[in-house]
């Protein structure tokens, strides 16, 4: 049989215990929360990597990614070569009022153009203002944390190995070529390594 008043005593004991503990309430916005580095705050776009392949928009379960583009003709890299066409991004927007932060778009992007940013301060009073365009998505790239460092014992990633090999090949070819008077080799310039005239650049050959 319960002693009369024991329930009240138990309740007061809980109250006393709680009163003597340190408060865990975060004083936001005066104090910023300490977020985990992989927090899913917002999606950032690195538009230089986007080839307008449309995979993200097709795979998004909420259909909240809007992409517009047009095709552009790239002249042949060498005389007698074939012209190429490439996609040029005109619009990239995400409606965050529909997005469910599943991360599928980021997972499926084959060109590393989408990233999670921990930024979360983009609340709006009008739901229509939650559709954010490419400039805003691009700005959020600056808030994306750096990826964790590679394991020193891990194999070199194939992309880095391929880039290093290609850079070494270019340097060796340049060292062997006799310098012509008035010639200036511009790395990354038109027709140069990585320049727009070289085949295989993002967005090329997708006609
Ligand atoms: S996180 Fe999911 S819902 Fe949001 S835009 Fe990407 S795929 Fe669509
Ligand atoms: S999947 Fe990546 S590269 Fe393709 S359209 Fe989307 S962001 Fe651009």
UniProtKB/TrEMBL annotation:
PANTHER family: NADH DEHYDROGENASE UBIQUINONE IRON-SULFUR PROTEIN 8, MITOCHONDRIAL (PTHR10849), NADH-QUINONE OXIDOREDUCTASE SUBUNIT I 2 (PTHR10849:SF24). This is NADH-quinone oxidoreductase subunit I. NDH-1 is composed of 14 different subunits. Subunits NuoA, H, J, K, L, M, N constitute the membrane sector of the complex. Its EC number is 7.1.1.-. [4Fe-4S] cluster 1 binds at residues 50, 53, 56, 109. Residues 175-187 have a biased composition (Low complexity). Its main location: membrane. Residues 148-207 are annotated as: Disordered. It is found in: Cell membrane. It comes from Streptomyces polygonati. It is an enzyme of class 7 (translocase). Keywords: 4Fe-4S, Cell membrane, Iron, Iron-sulfur, Membrane, Metal-binding, NAD, Quinone, Repeat, Translocase, Ubiquinone. [4Fe-4S] cluster 2 binds at residues 60, 99, 102, 105. Residues 188-207 have a biased composition (Gly residues). Belongs to the complex I 23 kDa subunit family. It is a peripheral membrane protein. Residues 41-70, 90-119 form the 4Fe-4S ferredoxin-type domain. InterPro entries: 4Fe4S_Fe-S-bd, 4Fe4S_Fe_S_CS, NADH_quinone_OxRdtase_chainI. NDH-1 shuttles electrons from NADH, via FMN and iron-sulfur (Fe-S) centers, to quinones in the respiratory chain. The immediate electron acceptor for the enzyme in this species is believed to be ubiquinone. Couples the redox reaction to proton translocation (for every two electrons transferred, four hydrogen ions are translocated across the cytoplasmic membrane), and thus conserves the redox energy in a proton gradient. Its cofactor is [4Fe-4S] cluster.
């Amino acid at each position: 049989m319960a002693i009369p008043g024991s329930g009240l005593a138990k309740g007061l004991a809980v109250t006393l215990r709680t009163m003597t503990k340190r408060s865990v309430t975060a004083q936001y916005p005066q104090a910023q929360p300490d977020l985990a580095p992989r927090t899913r705050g917002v999606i950032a776009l690195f538009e230089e990597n986007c080839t307008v392949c449309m995979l993200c928009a097709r795979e998004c379960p909420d259909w909240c990614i809007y992409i517009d583009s047009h095709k552009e003709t790239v002249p042949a890299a060498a005389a007698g070569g074939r012209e190429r066409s490439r996609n040029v991004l005109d619009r990239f927007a995400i409606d965050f009022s529909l997005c469910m932060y599943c991360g599928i778009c980021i997972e499926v992007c084959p060109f590393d153009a989408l990233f999670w940013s921990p930024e979360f301060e983009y609340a709006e009073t009008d739901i229509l203002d939650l559709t954010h365009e490419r400039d805003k998505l691009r700005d959020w790239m600056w808030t994306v944390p750096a990826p964790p460092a590679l394991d020193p014992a891990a194999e070199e990633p194939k992309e880095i190995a391929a880039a290093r090999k290609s850079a070494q090949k270019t340097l060796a070819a340049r060292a062997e070529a006799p310098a012509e008077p008035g010639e200036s080799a511009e790395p990354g310039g038109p027709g140069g390594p990585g320049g727009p005239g070289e085949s295989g650049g993002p967005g090329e050959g997708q006609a």
